[in-house]
Specification:
- The complex is a heterodimer of chains A (500) and B (336).
- Chain A has helices at 43-50, 73-78, 96-100, 116-129, 145-157, 175-190, 202-208, 231-239, 293-301, 323-329, 338-342, 349-354, 369-382, 399-412, 429-444, 456-462, 485-493, and strands at residues 5-14, 17-27, 32-36, 58-63, 66-68, 81-84, 163-167, 194-198, 211-216, 219-225, 257-266, 270-278, 282-287, 308-313, 316-317, 331-334, 362-363, 366-367, 417-421, 448-452, 465-470, 473-479.
- Chain A is α/β, with parallel strands linked by helices.
- Chain A folds into 2 domains: 5-239, P-loop containing nucleotide triphosphate hydrolases (Rossmann fold); 257-493, P-loop containing nucleotide triphosphate hydrolases (Rossmann fold, 3-Layer(aba) Sandwich).
- In chain A, the strands form 5 sheets. Chain A has a 6-stranded mixed beta sheet, with helices on both faces. In chain A, strands 16-19-20-13-21-22 form a 6-stranded mixed beta sheet, with helices on both faces. A 4-stranded antiparallel beta sheet of chain A has the order 2-1-4-5, with helices on one face.
- Chain B has one domain: ABC transporter involved in vitamin B12 uptake, BtuC.
- Chain B is built from 15 helices and 2 strands.
- In chain B, helix 1 packs parallel to helix 14, helix 2 packs parallel to helix 9 (185-203) and helix 2 packs antiparallel against helix 12 (227-253).
- Chain B has helices at residues 13-29, 36-61, 69-85, 87-93, 97-122, 127-146, 158-171, 173-177, 185-203, 205-215, 217-222, 227-253, 264-274, 286-305, 310-335; strands at 179-180, 183-184.
- Chain B is globular, with a radius of gyration of 20 Å.
- Chain B is an all-alpha fold and 336 residues long.
- Chain B starts with 12 loop residues before the first helix and ends with a helix.
- In chain B, strands 1-2 form a two-stranded antiparallel ribbon.
- The chains are: A alpha/beta (500), B mainly alpha (336).
- The interface between A and B is medium-sized, with 37 and 25 residues.
Chain lengths: 500, 336
Amino acid sequence: MPPILRMQGIAKSFPGVKALDDVSFEVQAGEVHALMGENGAGKSTLMKILAGAYQADGGQIYLDGEVVTIHSPQEATKLRIEIIYQEFNLVPQLTIAENIFLGRERRGAVPGWLDRKTMQDEAQRLMDGLGANIDIRTRVSKLSVAMQQMVEIAKATSRKSRILVMDEPSATLTEHELENLYRLIRQLKEEGVSVIYISHRMDEVFSICDRITVLRDGKTVGTKLTSEVTPDELIKMMVGRTLEDNFPKVVAEVGDTVLEVEHLSRKSDIHDVSFKVKAGEVVALAGLVGSGRTEIARCIFGADPYDSGKISFGGKPLLAHGPGGAIKAGIGLVTEDRKGQGLILDLTVRENTTLAALPSLSKLGFVEKGRERTVTQEYIKSLDIRTPSGEQRVKNLSGGNQQKVVLSKWLLTQSKLLILDEPTRGIDVGAKVEIYQLMNRLTAQGIGILMISSELPEVLGMADRVLVMREGRMVGELSRGEATQERIGEMAVGVPIREA
Amino acid sequence: MKPNRFSFFGVNPGVLFGFLFLLVFIFITTPTFRQVISIQNLAQQVSINGIIAVGMTFVIITAGIDLSVGSILGFVGVMTALALMAPDLVAQMGNGVMPLACLVGLLAGTLVGFLNGAAVAWLRMQPFIVTLATMWAVRGLAEVITDGTPIGTVDSDQKLAFFRNDLLQHKFTFLGMGYMGPVPVSAVILLIVVILGHILLTRTVFGRHVYALGGNAEAARLSGVNVAAIRISVFTISGALAGVAAILLMSQLVSGQPTAGQGYELYAIAAVVVGGTSLFGGSGSVVGSAIGALIIGVIRMGLNLHGISDFWQQIVTGTIIFLAVLLDEVLRRRKG
């Protein structure tokens, strides 16, 4: 029996870059096949060719053994190939149900009328099946990032595709939501659907995928059965070398309290939260998406208001401060949404790096461009930001390098506390380790770090203390020694988890 | 991908070469255009739209829009003329009334701009709606103040009549129609406005914050940029520069006409967009907008010199603006 999909000798060039060079890859019916590789390895390009978004310069695509050409996303849909992109394609003003059926609305008895009832029932069934407990008449703009991801998954699965591509679906999901996603994938597999799963996360690749194909620099490195390969071997295939340690944690000397939050409350989502962060310490806020972690971070940074409670920094209370006040006090916020909130994509590396520290790099309101260039060069060097120059627009940088630009911005303001919200989201393995090493360097300098992460291995690997949140409350604190995946999971969900 | 691609004061090469091509074309096909007086007329006409367009550029870089500038032209012209013609002031101050009148006009324009900005920043209203509202309200105010008649004709007060006439028809016209050597004064003012605008946008912290706000308002806010202050500032600048343009226009019209400047907001927006500034915000250049104003001015003048009717001029102007922006868009898409 021929494989359901075979991509043979695929090549694709963009001006100045050879994105894919003779890539071959095949998928069996009912298989969950992982596609791995560092950012820029060519995974997304390959999948965009499959989905008709790009045209290959060379090579062939076979479906059920027959050559096909896919000129547009519409043609891919006709061939029953669906792709869930990393960037969401939802209309924020429409409801969940309306988004799921966008472009193929069910018609009512009267021509031109919608059969809303059928669509809503089906949408609700799809979302319930994903374990997403939500009214499908909710507008997408009101949803968290994780819930939007669920809607994308529901939308794609509702189309009855035979090949479903998921481009890092888990990047925004927490462990609990992941379980629902895994359940869905296993169900699809039983129905004979082939799933191509792009991910950076070893744990999930090993728990749900049958085979793994690794790409590096636009070439196929190899395909392995999941049962016959170890994570270390995979990393070696991806980066072309062995990484010493995924979490190179160095425990730093702990100093005085930098940040103290007392009885922080906000009517809707934060309930009486108190904690401290000391100099040189990495404190992780763990919990499900929507448990109030990001909300607390934004209150501390002055980005959103809160109802009651007290936030002190360096022993002094921070009163009704905006982001400007927080920055002046010495707080930096690395947001979870790097492109939407962290960077100004059309500006250069230099302009992004200095944005928060511009007043200190200027005289009488005039920017001192010479000094600006010098400090930018220093950060490009010390953080090893891979960019042709400081004058490159940040939108042309990879995720890991973009994140380093955001970090440079907050190092330049002499932050004493860094709030890192999902610091390694969408960043490849090699760059992740660099970010962790950078965290070590910062704590060694006496900077306190408050880290929000949905990746438990990251929390366990990097945190000195773990604070677990559930539904806006702080439900527990674990030291580095006490913390395990199970204990954090139980606290976050509120019930003991059955062994998976 | 190359970071140091060719750029002339932030202007896209397409805009610049398009303008040079147009200039050469008109120069060859239109003998009358080669006369000094034609160039001087062009400079006078373009200076008004150019000055407004510089202010509009600030607003558009923050992804805003200012529809009220045309009405400010009328309102400020009226206010300036009223101050200039006030018998008591003229009696007391003599020629000194002229700078005072300019100041009154400038303040009036600045105030409208500030109110636009305050509504956008503090009341969080959309720039399009806010300035649409002030566009009507300010125009109405100019009509109400003047009861619909231009301010300029001198009345029965015989003693002052001669002096006031002289003031309005000879002295004050220096701004809009005077010359410094061969160069029109209004063109000099445009040049100063463009240079100051360019420096403000490209060399100062304020300018950087304008681009940052337009590129990503939330990221700018979370980087400590005072978003409200920047928004108010750009609208205030737009209002103030509309005020400057209004004083020049009033001086050219030799009266404060409440209906002056109708539709000028659209000319300014066209100049900014033809000059390569994106309506989505985050990028753009003051020099580009000035060139955009020149392109529109040269086209209209060329058509005029060829004796083409006003009706056809509108069709040709519309078509050329459409094609210019289309060309820019296509070039940008190819660059990726």
